[in-house]
Amino acid sequence: MGVDRHRRMFALLGVAFLAALGGLAVWRHHRYKHFAVHEAGRVYRSAWVEADVMAELVRRYGIRTVVNLCRPGEMGPTRAVEERVAVESAGARLLELPLPDTADPHDPRLAPHIAALSNPENYPLLIHCQHGVNRTARTLAMYEVLVKQQDGEAAIRRMPGFGRPYNPLEYEFARNFTRAFRFSADARRFSGDIAQQQHPRMAERHTVDP
Q: Coiled coil: which residue ranges (predicted)?
């Protein structure tokens, strides 16, 4: 009887421990939603997280610039204001650059995004949209082409999907952007400029776990 009772007790303790671990994992998922390191010390990604979480990420990873790809009012005016206050209070700057749904790499609405990715002073940077998936991946594909002179579509295929497939638009845009800019003179110049940026925080290595 005593042995059975102890076995039941240990079994219950094990179940409670696993439940606690599961609860912690769920909490971390919601708090740091879709946060990931794209390139350690240089480029990070996430969904739209709470203001205090964004401030924490800015400080922890030495972020200089946060790029918000959402449309004005997409998450409500209050959250947009809270994010700006949090980012600037943590010592970074916020660029609100709504990303258009286009497959045209020469769409003039992309000019601010290209300028942001091409400016060495913006790094390390964090890119986010509402869910941190499609628009974020499209912008990271632009980064891969402009700064690293890599294939944008192949880059998206290597990115985490966070349990969902990327939209066909992302692949189409990445293909078109690669053809247009991968071996351009501007891409070579952007790549060289950013490679020469020696900001000390860019040399740090970080894990995916925030």
A: none
